[in-house]
């Protein structure tokens, strides 16, 4: 995926609660003689953009033209915040500075091994006045036509009153500009009319008062929120469980989180919404935009502290993923080394054509992967498929079929075989588990005797009734039986 070609610079306005995230880095090596508390020895101090300001920082890192609208204090912290905006290339002409307000600063003490020891908040969460609302709306009215998309980043620090939020949403609707909102409040009516809402699991529960314990619970609660707020989409972030996207048409998708070592989740939601906005502003599909946002979030949590993710980092991630998929595709000479390489691990083997990969295949392979530690898939070559299925098959060639399988996270190796059966391949792999579909009888499975002779076993996993490549092809060829029938 060529991210830098897909994501061109667009004008995106972030309206939200901005703050400074200050970090004191140091170590704790003794207890104070004055009281039974640790003594923190500060060795380094730095500040970065936080809250809605971090959303804007991620937008500029994604190559977008970002502007910020907020209300801050006319104090030293406010001046420092403006300096940070300037250094990041963020337009802050819509920033309102008030002597009656305090600029929010969150100071974190971080010790050895990136351990956060304490956070000190200096903030003013008082709701803005009606006069300030009116001034902000007037400024927005004068400049709104220049923007391709608007993000509302609500941190409950006083900017988003019900009246102000609804006026912003109405104004954007009048100009045909989509608004996506990172929500925090429990007042559902506040977010009515947004294009997309992005709660986390806890916020989803607070907004709907529905259970969110399982993915199905999250899906149903998200549908409820989508309906209540007349939104096009609700994207619920679920930490290690990934993300759940629902649409007003009742469609649903689950996005697994990117596998990265997690150091700090601070600001991950800001990264998601920034890259999602960049994708949507560039008229990318929701699916592609989410893939990019998910990758960016995976990179962000591997960093320490509030930080932005550059478009170059996301580009490199997808390049590495392509290389990783390629490394999973091996030839027969490499197969012979796997048993020695994984002497202490349980190897699972299955085989098939895997033409038009569908949900039945996916669930079957997920269950197969759970049986051991290394999953190897033997894939019938194109000529083998033709001999088994007929001259019109396969639909997808062997190169495409193997790459699609290699893209599945739980698949370790994919290898091609040209014979009508995988017998010789099974002899080379010497698996601990041989897996076939539940439509086979044990005595019909080729290679069973080889596996059992070395102490392994055969596992039959049921397929989903009514789902097969052949049935899908029939529906495609017969429009009267449409896929939704």
What's the SSE blueprint?
Blueprint: H1 3-6, E1 11-16, E2 18-31, E3 38-51, H2 52-61, E4 65-73, H3 76-88, E5 91-98, E6 105-110, E7 116-122, H4 130-143, E8 149-153, H5 162-174, E9 179-182, E10 196-198, H6 201-208, H7 215-228, E11 233-237, E12 243-247, E13 252-255, H8 268-281, H9 286-300, H10 311-328, E14 329-330, H11 332-341, E15 347-352, H12 359-369, E16 374-380, H13 382-389, H14 398-406, E17 413-417, H15 423-429, E18 433-437, H16 448-453, E19 457-461, H17 469-477
Parallel strand pairs: 1-4, 1-8, 2-6, 4-5, 8-9, 9-10, 10-11, 14-17, 15-16, 15-18, 16-17, 18-19
Antiparallel strand pairs: 2-3, 6-7, 11-12, 12-13
Helix pairs in contact: 2-8, 4-5, 6-7, 8-9, 9-10
Number of helices: 17
Largest sheet: 9 strands, mixed
Instruction: Provide the spatial order of strands within the biggest beta sheet.
Output: 5-4-1-8-9-10-11-12-13
Rg, alpha carbons: 27 Å
| Dominant shape | elongated
Mean pLDDT figure: 89
**Structural class by SSE content:** alpha/beta
Question: What portion of residues is helical?
Answer: 25-40%
Q: Spans with pLDDT under 50 lasting ≥5 residues?
A: none
Beta-strand content: 15-25%
How far is the first residue's CA from the last residue's CA? Answer: 34 Å
What is the strand tally? 19
Describe it for me?
The protein has helices at residues 3-6, 52-61, 76-88, 130-143, 162-174, 201-208, 215-228, 268-281, 286-300, 311-328, 332-341, 359-369, 382-389, 398-406, 423-429, 448-453, 469-477, and strands at 11-16, 18-31, 38-51, 65-73, 91-98, 105-110, 116-122, 149-153, 179-182, 196-198, 233-237, 243-247, 252-255, 329-330, 347-352, 374-380, 413-417, 433-437, 457-461. With 485 residues, it is α/β, with parallel strands linked by helices. The protein has a 9-stranded mixed beta sheet, sandwiched between helices. The protein has a 6-stranded parallel beta sheet with strand order 14-17-16-15-18-19, sandwiched between helices. Strands 3-2-6-7 form a 4-stranded mixed beta sheet. Helix 6 (201-208) packs across helix 7 (215-228). The longest helix has 18 residues, at 311-328. The radius of gyration is 27 Å and the shape is elongated. The model has no long low-confidence stretch (mean pLDDT 89).
